[in-house]
Every structure is written in C-alpha cells, then in structure tokens.
C-alpha cells in the first residue's frame, strides 16, 4: 500500500541536528489531480530533492517522539503526586455553618441607646385609637 507523505519543513539547527516538522497532507481540492502517492520514505525524500538519509529522518522523528513522551510523563508524574497528596491529606471540609465567637467581659455595660425615639408616641396613639374604636374593650366578631 503506498504511503502519502508530506514533509513541511526540514532544517539544520545548531550543532548540526536535523529538525523536521511532519504533517499529514491536506486533502486536495476536488478539481485537482496532483496527488502523488509514493511507496517509501526514501522515494518521498528523493522526490522532494532532500538529500538526508532516511535513517537520520527516522532518528530525528524518534527523538521528537521520545521528548514528547518524556514531557507528558513528567506532567503525569506531577499530577499523580498532587492527587496522592490530596488523597493522603484531604482538606477539611465544613459540614455546616460554623461560627466562631470570642467572649469579652465588660464590667459595666453601657445602657443601650434608644433605636426608635418615637416608639412611646406611637404606642400612646395606638392605645387611644383602640379606646375610640372599642369603648367597651370588646372586639366584635365579624359576621359572615
């Protein structure tokens, strides 16, 4: 079965290392007939006029894959360590409303201030209205 390969970028970085970027080819437009199928990687490199040995390309790809695996493994190790720390030492969760109070002794508490200065006046008017509405002191039951 032929292999369709697209090499998007091959360059030599510092220290003579080969850096490659591989990607799968995008599907061709419907009216284009320029799809080339090549049976081997060596033939694909020759078609693209790239004079790099196949073994070097495969080694470079293998090194990139190993670097990705090492990075993912390190991240997974960190996640596992954090999860095991949480499992071994869970944070305390409150089961309901907790209030913390601090008692303070006041030897001579102050008298509370009157919040409603007109309370006595309203109370007096309410008593007068009650006497006017119910002179005998009895509340009549409403008739249905």
- The Cα radius of gyration reads 44 Å
H-E order: EEHHH
Helix content: 25-40%
Mean pLDDT: 76
Strand order of the largest sheet: 1-2
Largest sheet report: 2 strands, antiparallel
Structural class: mainly alpha
Cα distance, first to last residue? 98 Å
Tally of contiguous helical segments:
3
By DSSP, the count of extended strands is 2
Shape, please? elongated
Strand content: 5-15%
Low-confidence stretches are 1-17
Task: Write up what this structure looks like.
This protein is mainly alpha-helical and 144 residues long. The chain has a domain of 74 residues. The chain has 3 helices and 2 strands; from the N terminus they run ββααα. Strand 1 and strand 2 form a beta hairpin. It is elongated. The N terminus is likely disordered.
Note the main attributes of this structure.
single chain; 144 residues; mainly alpha; two-stranded antiparallel ribbon; 2 strands; 9% strand
Explain the layout of strands and helices:
Layout (H helix, E strand, L loop, with lengths): L5 E7 L5 E6 L17 H7 L6 H35 L30 H15 L11
Antiparallel strand pairs: 1-2
């Amino acid at each position: 079965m032929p292999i369709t390969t697209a090499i998007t970028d091959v360059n030599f970085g510092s220290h003579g290392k080969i850096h490659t970027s591989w990607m799968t080819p995008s599907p061709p437009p419907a009216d284009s007939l320029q799809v080339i199928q090549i049976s081997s990687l060596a033939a694909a490199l020759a078609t693209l006029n790239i004079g790099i040995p196949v073994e070097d390309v495969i080694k470079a790809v293998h090194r990139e894959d190993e670097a990705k695996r090492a990075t993912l493994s390190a991240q997974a190790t960190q996640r596992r360590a954090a999860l095991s720390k949480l499992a071994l030492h869970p944070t305390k969760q409150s089961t309901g409303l907790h209030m913390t109070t601090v008692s303070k002794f006041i030897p001579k508490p102050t008298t509370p201030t009157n919040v409603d200065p007109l309370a006595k006046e309203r109370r007096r008017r309410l008593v007068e209205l009650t006497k006017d509405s119910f002179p005998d002191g009895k509340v009549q039951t409403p008739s249905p």
